[in-house]
Amino acid sequence: MTLKRREFLRWGAVGAGAALFSSAGGAVPSMLYNQPQAPADPLAPLPQMQAPVAPTSPAGIDPSLFQRAKAAMDQHGIAYRDMIGIVDFSQPSSEMRFHVVDLQNGNVESHLVAHGRGSDPDHSGYLQRFSNEPGSYASSNGTYTTGDIYDGKHGTSMRLAGLDWTNNNAEARAIVIHSAWYAEPEVLAEHGQLGRSEGCFAMPQRSQWEVMQKLTAGHMIYAEKIA
To answer: Which of 217, 211, 191, 226 has its CA nearest to residue 101?
Structure first.
């Protein structure tokens, strides 16, 4: 074998070795990154994942009041569960405290509503007490269902039935939803509060129509004061 041929073979072998080393060197990181992960320790505690926090109530409604209303809906087996009326008598009569809630999308429409004069004898604008007694002229707390619409002494009105021991005299006391001049926004603007009913849910005329259209017969209204 000539010198040139021996040199050629020697350098060829060196080149092949270098190529092999380069190939292997390039494969090492890939091999390292693709190593199988060690199995998880079955006794190790699971990582703490923070669960998403769902809203506890629609905007503008006391969460505890909303939860009580939903519990009452289940307790009384209310069939119509698309809409609900929630009256927050913790708020003064100057506030939009009659809430109509769309339970399907969480939308809320709020309205003025008066309370009974027997619940606020000093005419402070705040409900002081509830009563279910005939002749008390007070508002009653608890669960109501809406009834038929009729024409009475207050004009167009909607009957209510009380489902709890705290308001089961509602029909006998003729506690209804009706409009009243003393519940109109102009009275609030002039006096800083609404007038008082004899226990009925007295509302501005426009609000009354909107409420009756949403809370048709068989829907629920929950009225309460959260201490």
So the answer is: 211
E-only strand ranges, 81-172: 83-88, 98-102, 108-111, 142-152, 155-162
User: Is it the case that residue 159 has pLDDT exceeding 80?
Assistant: yes
Tell me the C-alpha to C-alpha distance, in Å, between residue 191 and each of 44, 48, 55, 90, 188.
Answer: 67, 55, 36, 20, 5
Cβ-based burial of 154 (10 A; exposed 0-12, middle 13-18, buried ≥19): middle
What's the domain count of the chain?
Answer: 1
- Whichever domain contains 192, its CATH number is 2.40.440.10
The answer to whether the predicted template modeling score (pTM) of the entire model surpasses 0.85 is no
Residue type, 200: C
pLDDT digits (tens, 9 = 90+) for 18-38: 443 344 444 444 444 455 555
Tokens standing for residue 180: 């009243």
The range of the structural domain enclosing residue 170 comes to 63-224
Asked whether residue 220 is assigned to any structural domain, the reply reads yes
- Answer yes or no: are the C-beta atoms of 199 and 138 closer than 8 Å: yes
For residue 35, tell me if it sits in a domain.
Answer: no
pLDDT in tens, 99-119: 999 999 999 999 999 999 999
